[in-house]
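S., here's the first fold you wanted:
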Amino acid sequence: MKNICIIGAGGTGCTMAADMVLKGHEVTLYADPAWQGALEEVRAAGGIRMIGQAATGFAPISRLENDLERAVRGADVILVALMATRHEELAETLAPLLSEGQTVCFSAGNCGSVVLRRAGKVCSGVLIGEMQGNVYPCRFSGPAEVRCAFPYMEKKAAAFPGRDTPAFIEAMREAYACTPARNVMEACFNSPNLSIHLAGSLLNTGGIERDPAFRMYAQGLTPGVLACIREVEREKAPVMERMGFANAVHAGMIEKLMRYGEFPELDDFRQVSGPSSMRHRYITEDASVGQSLFLSLAHSLGMTLPCMESLVMLAGVINGENYLRDGMTLASLGLDGLSAGEINERLHNGFPGA
């Protein structure tokens, strides 16, 4: 049994909390004072009910916190379930609170482990890493109730620095079994979000803006959307090859989802809600973090990705932002001016002097 702290009380954080309690772990669920709504619903209910295709049942949550220092004190494993756009703010507060023997895991990662290491001096003996993609597709289905579309399936993960990956995976084993990715950047760029979210969302802008209850996987998958996803993945492949990264392809899953009436085991996933607006994380997070960072890497290698760049630019036009200028880059992570080999070396060994 582990003492687990979960940072973030959105759909993913609450699903993690329920799943971990139902698997016998001690859980503290944290949300900062600005995000207290879901936490108060859990407090009123005495816990979280979990339904769907993963563990099911009522999970009493004994510790609910809005003080980060109290929340992480004594935790063996700290699971971060926040949008990547909040990682930097969290990292500055969290870094000095960590103590020897703790493990921090970001899901979805988006190189949050690098952001945390760069935020300040982290105590020695702390393992920091991330998973490939989100831990499971899930949403709130009612107050203090979550529905999980798939059970947890073993994911790739890596630590930063990468030399810590074996120890990180062992520390995570009781909570979430993982297999090693080469490094956190390989894990980040193999998330299905990178291939699917922006293309699927932007090509359904009209439907999303007309209906806040829009469900992309039930209503928005068409041959044109699939063609755009395939083009994103075609552009992505040579960049991954140049870096020496494994390259996961996700268009086949979209093809299966499009065959409505077939594959009933995918029906819960098809009903996952969102995007509810063009400010949904499918647009803002992927444009400002995942795809912006990937484009920065591609440009540093002398490669152009017109489809992906167009998607990020269009997302910015719709939202009145400049994600290409202001989004995450290699410089944001202290990795600018390096060759592919030097980036991989830095991701394995960490920052000099750290």
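And the second, which I think is the more interesting of the pair:
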Amino acid sequence: MFSGLLPVMKGKHPASEAKLPSRSYWRNYLDALSGKGIVIGIHDKEVNYATRLLRVLNHLGNELPIQFVHEGDLLPESVFTLLEAAKLTEGSISQNIDFISIRPAITAGYQSIFKGYNNKWFAALFTTFEEIILMDADAVPFVKPSSFFELEGYKKTGAYFFRDRELSEALKQDQVDFFLGMIPADGSVFEYKIDPAQLQNNFFKYNSKHVMESGVVVMNRLSHMLGLLVSLSLQYWFQSGRIMYGDKDLFWLGQLISGNSNYYFNEHAAAAIGELEGELDLCSAQLGHLSKDKKLLWTNGTLLKCKKNTWLADFFKYPALRQKCGNSMAKMKEAYSSAITISECILPASIPEINGLNKRKVTGNFNKNYNRGCGGIYYCATSKDGGEVVRFTEEEKKHYNKIVGIWNSSI
């Protein structure tokens, strides 16, 4: 560790660059960063989603370059498929895409950790862009991605994060204290100045397990690289990695622990999007992220009713789902693979609104519903207790569902 590198890293960068031997690895690395772009960690199994994402980016007129970061084993067929998807289509522009293998930069024996959530850290670290929109392959934007760089919170801080669903799930107090104890205090030897407001979110006030959703992360890496490295370390350190679910909240915790409180969270927590069930409720496998004025910015979880291939198991496990499909396996399979329709969304009442000063048993109005099948990824939101139903305009619905159609068109 005294070399300045994590054990997982060889000290080589995937991209060729001129290096000054008298300077540190990280100084050379940071000086080589340039430009803005979209970064996606990719595996062969995600190429289907990434292909559909490229179609949407074409439709939106995206002009940002895109880098697909992979472990070095991306099949030639996958590369060809993505290159074809990036080509010019009627009324759109071709996407500028590139592929980066991290294999030259990873110490032998560590390649296997470039899996699942973990690939996002390496995508964030090894892209060549200075300013990035880090995006999941199954995320779908409804606005031109370059507009994320124009968000006021990003321009002020250099990092823009989106809030997760406000769920009833909580950590133990000693788990929260574990992370709190790593955050530099005022007057520490390095004279870090942590904004006290960043210690007032639901994680610290209510022990909430889910604060950030990382399907889209907007960041200036030049000013936030140290925090990224701390986040990576937290993911692989057993003591911290076992507490958190995936990479999500380690993005902002890594920044705080590094002494950097310059980041901004979106005004609204994640919403349930789709079609209302009655007047108060909405259930979906997707979560939507809204702008300050409640326009849909992006979703995570694809634009399918269910992205999980669990229809057959669910057919036998859930009688209500089976009956809803007329006891037909074919209809069940078709229902799972059908496109969603976006007409409304629900922003549930916030955890502070529902719980007040009580943090002993925190409850939220956004909860998982296993009876919906789909591998347990369906969540139901209610607008009671001061929540809000956002009804999109006809023009908005036309735009959103046009993108749903493009994403779901046959490949």
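Why I say that: The chain is about 30% helix and 20% strand. The longest strand covers residues 212-220.

Talk tomorrow,
H.
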